[in-house]
Amino acid sequence: MIKQFNKKNYVNLLDKLDLSYDEMVKKLESMTYVSAPKYDKKTCTNEEYEVEEVLRMPFFNISFLNYVKKNHTFPTQAEFISQYWSDNKEKLLSFTSNEYKQAIDNRVIRAYPSLIRDVMFAYFIKDKLKGTDKDVVYNENLDRYDNIDIMI
């Protein structure tokens, strides 16, 4: 059976951004990025293994989108890490050793480009469809529960 979707049933998070597509590009170009080490199951620490393979880490996109909703822009990597720890402090309370903190930070850093890419792609399409009867909806519930990154 085909599920019917109505855009009126979803808050469009793209409407929360106070930047044009070009302003987003400029912001990204001006940012400094930190690269996390690639995860390698063969050479990783026990903490890295647990973070990547064992623990059910809280969803990264929820913290990313919480930042967007609150600040009307997307976060830098450092802001995203801070938002993730703030949103999930109770779930991450027992992982306060430097080794666990570093492993979690590295995982958050590796998730960041994918989240930026999702928002930028959706916003790019929205910008290209401006002036038409089409709209682009980017919503965390569509993504989380229906595996739909964007709805046009």
Report on the structure:
The structure is a single chain. This protein is mainly alpha-helical and 152 residues long. It contains 6 helices and no strands. The longest helix is centred in the C-terminal third of the chain and has 31 residues, at 98-128. The mean pLDDT is 89.
- Compressed to H and E, one letter per element, the order equals HHHHHH
Characterize the overall form.
globular
Structural class: mainly alpha
Measured by DSSP, the beta-strand proportion falls in under 5%
Averaged pLDDT? 89
Terminal CA distance reads 20 Å
The number of helical segments is 6
**Helical residue percent band:** 40-55%
Instruction: Describe the oligomeric state of these chains in a short phrase.
Output: single chain
pLDDT < 50 runs, ≥5 residues = none
**DSSP strand count:** 0
Question: What characterizes the major β-sheet?
Answer: none
Q: Provide the gyration radius in Å.
A: 17 Å
List keywords for this structure.
152 residues; mainly alpha; 6 helices; 53% helix; globular
Task: Give a short summary of the structure.
By secondary structure, the chain is mostly helical.
